[in-house]
Amino acid sequence: DIQMTQSPSSLSASVGDKVTLTCRASHSISNFLNWYQQKPGKAPTLLIYGASTLQSGVPPRFSGSGSGTDFTLTISSLQAEDFATFYCQQTYSNPWTFGQGTKVEI
Amino acid sequence: EVQLLESGGDLVQPGGSLRLSCAASEFTFSNSALAWVRQAPGKGLEWVSSVFPSGAKTFYTDSVRGRFTISRDNSKNTVFLQMNNLRPEDTAVYFCAKYGGLTRPHYLESWGQGTLVTVSS
Predict the structure, then answer these.
(1) Running DSSP on this structure, what letter comes out for residue B106?
(2) β-bridge mates for residue B37, sequence order
(3) CB pairs under 8 A between A and B
(4) pLDDT 10s per residue in chain B (121 long)?
């Protein structure tokens, strides 16, 4: 199975900050990498797919980059509604696997 | 807007069975692939199973293969997860999710609100 490792596990930031989250795959996954946001008690929502394609309706302050084994999710200017847990996911091979999540806190 | 509504979650004893349902609307169900993803209390996300449009192509994570069966009824726009021989480690919220398309790279573009399965004596 492909292991996905996110860093950091949590971070504290302020509104307006630029935030960068990292996801590393144990094997090359090309660009088969997705990012999701999950708020407490809610279902995840898709932010980025194919490593860098912004899902329709997602604000452009979110961006994704990377290929192979190293990927990043960047929030250019953190907003109050962005405080949540973020997960990366690889769909390169079965079983699909998620990272353990990065919790972004105030 | 895509709608996915899960149901069937309950408290069940170890070794028991449960059948989850996910009723879909506002998209062409028969042309879509769907997945079940679970989240144990306080933990991260775990993909469980996927089914492609005809129902003939299915995938499972190793920990549930042989115990869980995913299926779909395209006439009722519903996907199911039959869970047998349940274990305490299957305790989780189970989410139903719709693929963004049928070609790779795959992603889950819409999610239901989840249904809670608790396996305990």
Answers:
(1) P
(2) B47, B95
(3) 64
(4) 999 999 999 999 999 999 999 999 999 999 999 999 999 999 999 999 999 999 899 999 999 999 999 999 999 999 999 999 999 999 999 999 999 988 888 999 999 999 999 999 9
- CB spacing of A32 vs B106 below 8 angstroms: yes
> In this predicted structure, what is the pLDDT of residue B102?
87
Backbone angles phi, psi at A80, to 5 degrees: -55, -35
The closest CB to that of A98, out of B46, B111, B113, belongs to B46
Quote the tokens at residue A59. 């604000």
Tokens 């299926």 — which residue?
A: B71
Burial bucket for residue B119 (CB in 10 Å: 0-12, 13-18, 19+): buried
Query: DSSP letters of A45-100?
Result: EEEEETTTEEPTT--TTEEEEEETTEEEEEESS--GGG-SEEEEEE-SSSSPEE--
B15 and B78 in contact (C-beta within 8 Å)? Answer: no
Query: Tens digits of per-residue pLDDT, A64-83?
Result: 999 999 999 999 999 999 99
Residues A66 and A33 sit within 8 Å (Cβ to Cβ): yes
Chain B closest-CA separation from residue A39 CA (Å): 12
Chain Cα centroid distance, residue B97 = 7
